[in-house]
Specification:
Elements: H1 19-25, H2 29-45, H3 50-53, E1 54-61, E2 74-80, H4 82-101, H5 118-134, H6 149-152, H7 157-164, H8 169-178, E3 183-186
Helix pairs in contact: 2-8, 7-8
Length: 187
Amino acid sequence: MAINKYNNSSAPRPDRISWKYLKLIIKDNKCLEEIINIANTCINLGYWLSHFKTSSSIIISKPNKVAYDSSKSFYLFILLNTLGKLIEKVIGEQLQFHLIANNFIYPNQLERLKQHSTTDAGVVLIHLIWSGWVKNLQTSTLAFDITQFFPSLNHQLIPLILKKAEFDLRISLFLSDYIVDRKTKYS
């Protein structure tokens, strides 16, 4: 289950619900049913609750820095509401399953996919390099961090991508609403 990987002692969330308590709550079938109902209703309406769009950002200085005049001197932690994060995780797993089942993800796209690891990516890279060597080709690689890709994503492009991936229109509407009007509070 998606919730099992979360640490019971993680930092308090904006909604003040800890993973420990949420794990206890969902053991009750009626409570679990209601959480599933919330998620399904959001998808059916194409609407992600504003409560789940609000996060808390905590900035902590890194120890033993000579100067604290650069952003690299600080850690930034972004905390989402616990229930929203759980629902996002479940929806994300379902989306990934659909994309993989319909061969929409390029076979070498490994990062963040379930049952794939850095080792898998390394094996693919080595295979590509050796294949090139057999053909007397030189191989080079380019690696970059796409952490800031999501915020800069063209929001009008998402529904088109989801349509091409043959997602239900409700999913497209939900994800279009999911990415807009997000807010963070700094602590």
